[in-house]
Design brief:
The complex is a heterodimer. Chain A contains 8 helices and 10 strands. Chain A is an alpha/beta fold. The chains are: A alpha/beta, B mainly alpha. At the A-B interface, strand 6 and helix 2 of A face helix 7 and helix 8 of B.
C-alpha cells in the first residue's frame, strides 16, 4: 500500500487544571495517495485533534506523523486546511483571501499575472467567479465555505484537510457542496482527510471511514472500506443495498458499540 | 415617504432633541432672570454674533479673534495627540503580542493612568521651560493610555482562527502583521483613538487656563478676568461643539474601517 500519510503510534495529551487530559492514544493510520478518508465519532472523541495533528497545528505528545516521507513538524501549505467556520479574513475580498495563499506558495517562482490566473481558476472551480470582488460578509455561508475550499485547493496541497467543513450549513446547501466536492476531488485527484459527524456524508464521500471510540483517551475503533463505485450519485445510492449496509455498519458502531451515556 | 411617515419620524426622532435643547435654554433664561450677573440666552446670542462676525483679527499676542483661539487649541491637541498615537499604538502592539512586556507594563500603566493629566503640567514646565510644549506634553500623556490599552486589547483578542490561517499558509511575520494583525486590531485601535481625543480636548481647556498664550482655555480665563460672562458661556458651547465634532469624525472613521 502506498503510504502517503502515515500516523505511527500517536498519543496526544493536554495539560489542564485538573491534570493531564489524554485526548488520543495508540493512533495508527495509513492513508494512500488520492484516498478520501473521513474521521467520524461522537463529539469529544478527538477527531478534530487527529486532524490538527496531521495539519501540524498540534504536535503529538508521543509518536510520529509523516506526509510524503517527511515527518510533520508544523503546519504548512502542502497540508491545506478548510476550517469549520471558514476562517476567511473579513477585511479582504474573496479574491484576496485566495491570493494570499497562492502568493505564499507560488510567489517565489511566478509573476503577478500567473498568480492572478491561479486565483481566478480556483474561484471558477467552486463556481464563484462572480463573487471575486465581494467581501466575506456579503456572501452566504455556503459561498464562504466554497471560498475556503478554493483557498485550500489553490495552493495545490498534497493533502486537503477538512474540519467539519459543511457542519454549519443547511441540509440543501450541504448536499450541493458535497456533490461539488466529489467532482473537484475527482478532477484534482486530491488526497482528503475530512472530519464529520454526518453518517450519510461519510458514506457518500469516503473511500474509507475511520470510526473513533469515545473520548477521553479515544482511539481508532474500526475502519470501514466503502467499496461503492465512483462517481457516486446520491439519488441512485438512496436505493442501493450496499449503501444501506455500509450506512448501517457506521450507525451500529456509533449508536451500539459506542453509545453515549445520556448526558 | 408618505406624509404620515414623515410626521412619525419628526415626532420620534427630531422632536425630542429639539425639546431637550429648548428646555436647557428655557432653564437658563429663567436662571438669568433671577440672577443679575448671569446673562440670558438672547444677550449671549447677540454677543456671539458680534464675536463670530470677525473671528480672525489679530490685535496683539494676547488679543486675537476667536477663530485663532480655537485653531491654536486644536493644533496643540493635534500635536500632542499625534505624538501619543506614534508612540502609543506601536507600544500597544508590543504589549499585546508579548506577555512578558504586558506583565512588565501592567504596574506602570495602572499606576500612572489614574493620575489627573494636569498633575503632569509642572513636570512639563520644568523639563521644557516653556508653556506651549508643556501643554502639548499634558495632551500627550493623557491620551497615550487609552491608545496603548485598546491596541493591546485588540491584539490579545485576535481570534485563534486567523492565526491558524496564518500558520497553515506559513505567512512571514511581516505578512502576518500587515494582512492579519493590523486589520484585525484596527477597530480596537480606533476605539482607543476616539477615547483619547475626548480626553485630550477635555484636558486642553484646563491646561491652557494654566499656561496662557492663545487658545480657547486661555480665552475663557481672560474673559473671566474681564468679567465678560457672555463670552464664557459662548466658550462653553464652543468647547462642547468642537468636542462633539471631533468625536463624530472618529466615529465616522471607525465605521469606514469596520468590517
Amino acid at each position: 500500500m502506498n503510504r502517503f500519510v502515515l500516523v505511527e503510534d500517536a498519543h496526544m495529551s493536554f495539560d489542564t487544571k485538573q491534570g493531564e487530559f489524554i485526548a488520543l492514544r495508540d493512533i495508527d493510520l495509513e492513508i494512500a495517495r488520492g484516498e478520501f478518508i473521513t474521521l467520524i465519532g461522537h463529539s469529544g472523541c478527538g477527531k478534530s485533534t487527529l486532524l490538527n495533528l496531521i495539519a501540524g497545528l498540534l504536535l503529538p505528545s508521543s509518536g510520529h506523523l509523516f506526509c510524503a516521507e517527511r515527518e510533520i513538524a508544523g503546519p504548512g501549505p502542502e497540508r491545506a486546511v478548510v476550517f469549520q467556520n471558514h476562517s476567511l479574513l473579513p477585511w479582504m475580498t474573496c479574491f484576496d483571501n485566495i491570493y494570499l495563499g497562492v502568493e505564499r506558495v507560488f510567489g517565489a517562482n511566478e509573476g503577478r499575472e500567473q498568480l492572478r490566473q491561479r486565483t481566478l481558476e480556483a474561484l471558477e472551480l467552486v463556481h464563484l467567479s462572480h463573487a471575486e470582488k465581494k467581501f466575506p460578509h456579503e456572501i452566504s455561508g455556503g459561498m464562504k465555505q466554497r471560498v475556503g475550499i478554493a483557498r485550500a485547493l489553490a495552493m495545490q496541497p498534497k493533502v486537503l484537510l477538512m474540519d467539519e467543513p459543511f457542519g454549519a450549513l443547511d441540509a440543501l446547501t450541504r448536499a450541493h457542496l458535497q456533490d461539488e466536492l466529489m467532482k473537484i476531488v475527482a478532477a484534482t485527484k486530491s488526497t482528503v482527510v475530512m472530519v464529520t459527524h454526518d453518517v450519510d456524508e461519510a458514506v457518500l464521500l469516503s473511500d474509507r471511514i475511520v470510526m473513533m471510540t469515545n473520548g477521553p483517551a479515544a482511539t481508532i475503533g474500526e475502519i470501514l472500506a466503502v467499496d461503492l463505485p465512483k462517481p457516486r450519485d446520491r439519488l441512485a445510492l438512496a436505493n442501493d443495498a450496499q449503501y444501506h449496509r455500509l450506512r448501517g455498519a457506521v450507525l451500529e458502531f456509533l449508536y451500539q458499540k459506542q453509545a453515549r451515556k445520556a448526558a | 415617504m408618505q406624509s404620515k411617515d414623515i410626521k412619525a419620524f419628526l415626532v420620534s426622532s427630531v422632536l425630542p432633541p429639539l425639546l431637550g435643547v429648548a428646555c436647557l435654554i428655557g432653564l437658563w433664561g429663567l436662571l438669568a432672570q433671577t440672577n443679575e450677573s448671569l446673562p440670558g440666552p438672547l444677550k449671549t446670542w447677540d454677543s456671539a454674533v458680534a464675536l463670530f462676525s470677525d473671528p480672525f483679527y489679530q490685535k496683539s499676542p494676547n488679543d486675537q479673534g476667536i477663530g485663532w483661539n480655537i485653531l491654536n487649541s486644536l493644533q496643540r491637541v493635534a500635536t500632542g495627540f499625534g505624538m501619543a498615537a506614534l508612540v502609543g499604538i506601536p507600544l500597544g502592539f508590543l504589549v499585546g503580542r508579548f506577555g512578558f512586556l504586558d506583565r512588565m507594563s501592567a504596574p506602570i500603566i495602572s499606576l500612572l493612568r489614574p493620575v489627573s493629566p494636569l498633575a503632569w503640567l509642572p513636570i512639563g514646565l520644568l523639563v521644557f521651560k516653556a508653556a506651549n510644549p508643556a501643554a502639548i506634553w499634558v495632551i500627550f500623556i493623557s491620551s497615550i493610555w487609552p491608545m496603548i490599552i485598546n491596541t493591546a486589547m485588540g491584539v490579545r483578542q485576535l481570534p485563534q482562527d486567523y492565526l491558524n490561517v496564518a500558520r497553515v499558509l506559513n505567512l512571514s511575520e511581516w505578512k502576518v502583521f500587515t494582512r492579519i494583525l493590523f486589520p484585525a486590531t484596527l477597530p480596537y485601535m480606533l476605539t482607543g483613538v476616539r477615547l483619547a481625543i475626548g480626553t485630550a480636548w477635555l484636558v486642553i481647556v484646563a491646561a491652557e487656563m494654566l499656561t496662557g498664550g492663545v487658545g480657547i482655555g486661555f480665552w475663557v480665563w481672560d474673559e473671566w478676568n474681564n468679567l465678560n460672562v457672555e463670552h464664557i458661556i459662548i466658550a462653553i458651547f464652543i468647547v462642547g461643539i468642537v468636542g462633539l465634532l471631533l468625536e463624530q469624525l472618529l466615529v465616522w472613521l471607525a465605521k469606514r474601517f469596520s468590517y
